[in-house]
Amino acid sequence: MRALEELTEVSENLENKYVSDWRNQGKKVVGYVCSYLPEEILYAADILPYRITGKGVKDTSQADSYLTRVNCTFSRCCLELGFSGGFDFLDGAVFINGCDHIRRAYDNWKAHQSALPFMYLLPVPHLINPEGRQWYLEEVVKFKEAIEAYFEVEVIDEKLSEAAAVYNETRRLFKKLYDLRAKDEPPLSGTEVVSILSAAAAMPKKEFNQILSELIEETEASSSKATGKVRLLVAGSLMDDPEFLRNVEDLGAVVVADALCFGAKNFWDLTDESGDVLEALVDRYYNHVPCPRMAGEYSRRFDFVKEQAERAHVDGVILEHIKFCDTHGADNALLKKDFEAAGIPAIELERQYGPLADAGRLRTRAQAFLERIRR
Amino acid sequence: MGTENNSALERIVTNFEMASSLPSDLDLESPAMKAVIDAMPEARRGTFLAMYQDPDVRETSVVFNRSSGNYWRSLLTARDEGKKIVFVPFNFAPEIFHALNMVPVCVEVLTTMAQNLEEGVAEYLDLAVERGLPDTMCSTQRGVIGLFEAGILEKPDLLINGALGSCDPNSKAFEYMAEKFDIPALYLDIPYYHDKRALDYYARGFKNAIKAIEEMTGHKLDPDRLREVVDYTNRATELFFEINELKRNVPNPVPNYYNMQHIGTKFMMVGKPEAVEFYEKALEVSKDRLKKGKHVLPEEKIRVLFIYTFFYFDTSIYSWFQEEMGVSYLMDVLSAFDFNPHIDTSSVDTMLYGLAEEMFNLPMTRQLAGSWDMDSNWLWDSLYYAKTYKADCCVFSGHLACKQAWGVYRLVSDSIKKELGIPCLRLEGDGWDSRITPLAVIREQLEEFFETVV
Fold it and tell me: Which of A371, B61, B116, B386 is deepest in the core (most CB within 10 A)?
């Protein structure tokens, strides 16, 4: 499938050809972390939002001397790339206080000689309530003004509305793709879907939408099916690297659904296109499927994961978290208990981000889980 | 609360009552007392001697233990008296509950108290993990979760967490407790910034939380009772500010162990007359020591500032500093409250705003919610305390769960060295679990560090 190959290639390169083309037109690229950043504001400013990743890092020795071994490998891999010039193609970076690890990665990068010209942190409240929503709105407005001031652009409502429409289209297309995944014979593996999600975060959405539409058409027309028999959902810490799922799927499973912040959690909710666009964006990002950083929202998170599991008729659930990621680690312990109580087998897997140093251990645990399901 | 024989709380109360029954003219050399001390497990013996060996510290210990014993005892009878019990983290001030006629329990203090159970706390730390909690979570909440799992700690009526944004393990532990043990919970968001806008936001959240507490528990806020509580708070603040003033003296006359008792008082009893009584005694003892030229032994060689927390599984380290090392323990992040406000009691609104401001400046909330180099954040405070109290060196006792502190420790310590020229030691361990780094190893590292400083 041509479209799949194209997106896989995009996902495998930090500065992919779309980023290069964008820059060659004299346009800016800004990196960001977290699903609480309204990307549309950057897009409307004709700046390419590029989701920061730690993919491809072989060792984290520079980052380790600032962040330490108790900080998660994702934050250390991202920082390593920042320190070593891996993100030199970016004109700026925008972080969220998503968790203790990533906000400290920001602190260290900002204080380091490798800091990008524009470094910004948009603080998001940890509670969903009217006061928090107002705070978030004010912060989003401040962020928009900072972008306008630094990059000497004006983010007008018309452009924001266009951006909101483009991003909603991406979300609708992803839902279509996930409908295909949920079929009895899923046409794509979970590994392939992670590559597609990863590409979506690293290229202009308009072009991405076009390729994703082609991919959906090709997939619908194709008779090829993913080979795994045991249907799984994966949920937990950030995942933009397909290797973890490849490891699991090689054992005869197929991941047919997810509840990941690069995945379903990130595109399930649409922006209301009928009213004030900035308010609508704020509502969409603030109220979307909550990350475990949002306190008191556990039941919403469980309901969402369960809904995804049921619509894809999964045989089991993998709850993964990157070591030291307490937000997902604590949530996963609760999710496991509640899934088992609901009669859906679940396993918790603690993993490292980046090079699969512990691939053997994870494989053994995943294998035991699959055997339990097959029994 | 708790009626079974193995109730953790009953046993904690008994321990305190035994300790508080000791007189200030205690003769540690008497054969009977020697036999009691010899029979204690090592960690508990260390803590006991830290409280009772020095006659000056013994005076404050007697007051502190009596007040604490009464406080913990009140938990056992709270429900019979129609009072609801609420568990909070250390960065949620207790006064509002005293004003609401509820009984607050600081989870971190409870885990610390559980260290003195006959069996220690380690098996409960492990049990929490066996039952699902990640082992990378903080042991201060893990201890209480383990006690719940073991069925020897009764559930409170309410959980309230005020650490959102400053510490992920802390806030997630409360959500975990709420969901797993089906306890009603409330949360209070801490903004990333530390300015007027942020304080106003925080104060609005605090007022909303009080409304929710009233609705959930049926306890109502009585303005007169609130004023009485806040008056006690203000008096306690005046007293510990005065004690802090004494710490500026070289040598420092304030006993090292005061810091430990200060934390326990501030996190549980402030807003009550018992807290005032303790601070009055501590001030009296410290003034007397200044007058008599008493300080750490044999002489004050080093003034140390712990820029983070301390080790609580065996508090003999305070007396080791005081009686053997010539090290004056100025304070740590948990016992430093120089930015505690004097609360305006003219109206309910001003009092609630003042209490919110107090909480906004509590440890960790203040230093760790935002960026390390913002005003009123970790570096800013470390420099202030080091300069104000004339520290010769700093120590970072890095608890393994504290990812947000570890993540910028290097930036902070490098800046302290650059700005003030004083070194900082990095220790690794767990304040409530001696198995991670035993006290002997900690002492060895400190000793070596102090040699280089001198």
Answer: B61
